[in-house]
Amino acid sequence: FAGITSMMRLPIASSLDGLDACFVGVPIDIGVSNRPGARFGPREIRNQSVVVHEYNVATGAAPFQHLMVADVGDVWVNLYNLPDICWSIRESFSKIIKNGCVPITAGGDHTITYPILQAVAAKHGPVGLVHVDAHGDCADLMLGEKIAHGTSFRRAVEEGLLDTKRVVQIGLRGVYNQSSGFRIIPATECWHKSLTPLMHEVRQQMGDRPIYISFDIDSLDPAFAPGTGTPEIGGLTSIQALEILRGCAGLNVVGADLVEVSPPYDTTGTTALTAANLMFEMLCV
């Protein structure tokens, strides 16, 4: 409750030199189609992260003993121009990735994943994807627009950013597209069970080539994460979220994001606290 707030009380870095991984914020919600507020997500996730422990008791991971990690602040964005925002994100992440630093990103709405994937693919080629979400985000248009939080993965496929045979979408409850070639795991197939066996299959699917993790907090049931822009009932539990991320251990993760936390709808801070813990789990992978 004192001092400048950073992700998990980490140093705030102005340079990427020597960093193995970094936390970065992208505070936008201009791409949403329902409730706004995700622009405040990075700040509140940082605020809640100050109580996250630096040692993962469950897995034994101690990332800060082995990695150089810092909070590098937020990407500067022009909140009135979404194409310009995407350009800024792509350029900023290109610099991070070219420095050999793995970005773990706090959104912001899900639009941000599209330009991040552009930067990732420019370095690594088409990547695998573990996408956890209530929605497939594969629409061609949203309210007449090609770029929005519900079109990110359609654009990514069109531009060859994803290795479509190594894409899995987990927790979907809204409309989804089965023509993409993705493996789709609807939320109904996750009810009343552990997802550890599923993640064993996912690890085999992903192999040892680069993958990206994109986690939309609305994948969780609103009972666990009410503070989001497009909530859907019947979602995943917070325990299943941990199983998914811990199930990515050993994969060649070249970046990750957690998006769609909307603090104005998160009256107790539970959603942002959950997000902060899940971002730590991403680092532990």
CATH class: Alpha Beta
Largest sheet: 8 strands, parallel
The tally of helices reads: 8
CATH fold label: Arginase, Chain A
Q: How would you name the oligomeric state of the polypeptide chains in this document? A: single chain
CATH superfamily: Ureohydrolase domain
Low-confidence stretches: none
End-to-end CA span: 28 Å
Report the principal-axis shape. globular
Query: N-to-C SSE series?
Result: EHHEHEHEHEEHEHEH
Integer average pLDDT? 96
Query: Class by helix and strand content?
Result: alpha/beta
Estimate percent helicity: 25-40%
Q: Kindly estimate the percentage of residues that lie in beta strands according to DSSP.
A: 15-25%
CATH architecture: 3-Layer(aba) Sandwich
| Total tally of structural domains | 1
Structural Rg: 17 Å
Biggest sheet strand order reads: 2-1-3-8-7-4-5-6
Report on the architecture of this protein.
There is one protein chain. The protein has 285 residues and is of the alpha/beta class. It has eight helices and eight strands. The chain has helices spanning 41-49, 63-66, 82-98, 113-124, 152-158, 196-206, 238-246, 270-284, and strands at residues 21-26, 69-74, 102-107, 127-132, 162-172, 183-186, 210-216, 252-259. It has an eight-stranded parallel sheet with strand order 2-1-3-8-7-4-5-6, with helices on both faces. Helix 7 links the parallel strand 7 and strand 8 (252-259). The protein is globular. The two termini are 28 Å apart. The relative contact order is 0.19. Mn(2+) binds at residues 110, 133, 135, 137, 216, 218.
